[in-house]
Amino acid sequence: MAGTADAMAIHEAGHAVLARLLGVAVRLVDITQTNGSTDFEGELARFARYLVLAAGEAAEIAVTGNSDQHRCARDLAMLHDELLDEVEIGAVREAAVALARLARDDIERVARALTDRRSLTGTEVDDVLARAD
Fold it and tell me: Does any domain span residue 133?
């Protein structure tokens, strides 16, 4: 699953899967070759928001061993806007990578479905995750 064409799917699947692990409902996950977005139901609690923002980069690291800083730039800029210093940002990024490593199989499953369909509703994400149980 580590091909360049799948990178956006891995990134967005990371946001969706970590959100679900944290109890946050996903509304929609969408990808194109160059862009992606993940929308959630309701407001995220502050720390959950930080982890979910870092989750795209974390998923890339967990699945491929590295991340594309260009693809992750918007998420990281949002973390910089919300957190006070690099120590806090580093701690959030490390926690997100640890969670993504634990959820790697789920991330890869959702990324495959996203690559096939280009868009998944929250219900479809939940269905993909449920098939693993």
Answer: no
Instruction: List pLDDT tens digits, range 72-129.
Output: 888 888 888 887 688 888 899 999 999 999 999 999 999 999 999 999 999 999 999 9
Question: Strand 36-40's sheet: what is its strand order?
Answer: 36-40, 26-31, 119-121
- What gap in Å lies between CA 133 and CA 29, rounded to an integer? 21
Domain range for residue 86? Answer: 4-128
Taking a C-beta distance cutoff of 8 angstroms, is the pair 118, 37 a contact? no
Q: pLDDT band at residue 2, thresholds of 50, 70 and 90? A: very low
The predicted structure's pLDDT at residue 102: 97
For the chain, the helix, strand and coil percentages under 3-state DSSP, each to the nearest 5 = 70, 10, 20
pTM score of the predicted model: 0.91
Classify residue 73: in a domain, yes or no. Answer: yes
Q: State how far the Cα of 3 lies from the Cα of 50, in Å rounded to an integer.
A: 27
Burial class (CB in 10 A: 0-12, 13-18, 19+), 124: middle
